[in-house]
Write a structure and sequence with these properties.
By secondary structure, the protein is an alpha+beta fold. The chain folds into 2 domains: 6-194, Fructose-1,6-Bisphosphatase, Chain A, domain 1 (2-Layer Sandwich); 205-336, D-Maltodextrin-Binding Protein, domain 2 (3-Layer(aba) Sandwich). 30% of the residues lie in helices and 22% in strands. It has a 7-stranded mixed beta sheet, with helices on both faces. It has a 5-stranded mixed beta sheet with strand order 11-10-12-14-13, with helices on both faces. A hairpin with a 3-residue loop joins strand 6 (158-164) and strand 7 (168-173). Helix 2 packs antiparallel against helix 3 and helix 5 runs antiparallel to helix 8 (322-336). The N and C termini lie far apart (57 Å). It binds 2,5-anhydro-1,6-di-O-phosphono-D-mannitol and magnesium ion.
Length: 337
């Protein structure tokens, strides 16, 4: 059987793409190398003393775990040296990370969540790296300014994630469909395992932290009731599945069909727009899901249409099968009147 490596796949894409210069491929190769290094550490996390809190708190006011630090440091180190970036944004860093003067630069911008779902690491639950690639609009030798980075999700040139689970996977899109690769540890290569992923138009799973029910507004409660009741398009309740690791919940729903919801929290002043971040979590996954035939919304607007006003902006997120997301938007619209 012919096995296609992620590098072959990228080269093929590069040939077809009018914007191909080879620089994009070399950036991706660097990203893949960083993910392999992170994957190796995640896989041996139970064996060595890399678990537990560092005691520090990240820019979002959350406890930082050692593997978060490690993944963040690996990504920054490798990607600063990729020679094709003009700025990096990480969930773990308050400000943009510059490319040091002595290193070559390019016009791509990389935003990432180095280790999504990291509160689950101690329990050996799947975690992942989510990434978004943008391009600066005007050529310049200077470091990118924040205003150049704050682009709508529709302007992403690539996005995807690495999932460190029972096997390590990479799922990405460059706007020409979605492809999934599985790392074969015996040869150290990501091999094409899920070509041209399409998500079911209507799902059978809903994923939400229902423990927050009492904090939600009426629209959110009605939407969740729709999925767990029998009076819906499916004619029976959807199954509830919630890992608490966005990238893992998203991946399962992408393959099986379903909706992931992280709504605004009406009672927690710290979460008026929910918990998830627009640029490093919602937008990249929205690009993937739209390319797979699904949808992503904040309850009103498509996620990809939202213009960020800050690097760490948060956004309510409803993402997954198209008809399920449309239903949530319909319910929100009704309640807004
Ligand atoms: P993080 O691990 O990068 O901080 O991401 C936030 C995580 C998501 O992976 C997950 O969907 C969500 O937090 C779960 O939050 P909650 O415990 O409030 O349901
Ligand atoms: Mg995250």
């Amino acid at each position: 059987m012919k096995q296609v490596t992620v590098t072959e796949h990228l080269l093929l894409h590069q040939k077809e793409s009018p914007m191909a210069t080879g620089r994009f491929t070399s950036m991706f190769n660097e990203l893949i190398l960083a993910a392999k290094i992170i994957s190796r550490e995640v896989n041996k996390a139970g064996l060595v003393d890399v678990l537990g809190l560092t005691g520090e708190v990240n820019v979002q006011g959350e406890a930082v775990r050692k593997l978060d630090d490690y993944a963040n440091a690996v990504l920054i180190h490798r990607m600063q040296r990729a020679g094709v970036l003009c700025a990096i944004g990480s969930e773990e860093n308050a400000d943009l990370i510059e490319i040091p003067d002595h290193l070559p630069k390019g016009d791509y911008i990389l935003i990432f969540d180095p280790l999504d779902g990291s509160s689950n690491i101690d329990a050996n639950v799947n975690v992942g790296t989510i990434f978004s690639v943008l391009r600066r609009k005007e050529k310049s030798e200077c470091a990118a300014r924040l205003c150049e980075v704050l682009q709508k999700g529709y302007e992403q040139v690539a996005a995807g994630y690495f999932l460190y689970g029972s096997s390590t996977m990479m799922v990405y899109t460059t706007g020409r469909g979605v492809n999934g690769f599985t790392l074969d540890p015996s040869v150290g290569e990501f091999l094409l395992s899920h070509p041209d992923i399409k998500t079911p138009e209507r799902g059978k799973i809903y994923s939400v932290n229902e423990g927050y029910w009492s904090f939600w507004d009426e629209a959110t409660r009605e939407a969740v009731s729709y999925f767990k009741g029998s009076d819906n398009e499916r004619g029976k309740p959807y199954s509830a599945r919630y890992i608490g690791s966005l990238v893992a919940d998203f991946h399962r729903n992408l393959l099986y069909g379903g909706i992931f919801l992280y709504p605004a929290d009406m009672q927690d002043p710290k979460k008026p727009k929910g918990k998830l971040r627009l640029m490093c979590e919602a937008s990249p996954l929205a690009f993937v899901i739209e390319q797979a035939g699904g949808a992503a919304s904040d309850g009103e607007r498509p996620i990809l249409d939202i213009e960020p006003t800050e690097l760490h902006e948060r956004v309510p997120l409803f993402i997954g099968s198209k008809r399920d997301v449309e239903k949530v938007v319909e319910i929100y619209r009704k309640h807004k009147k």
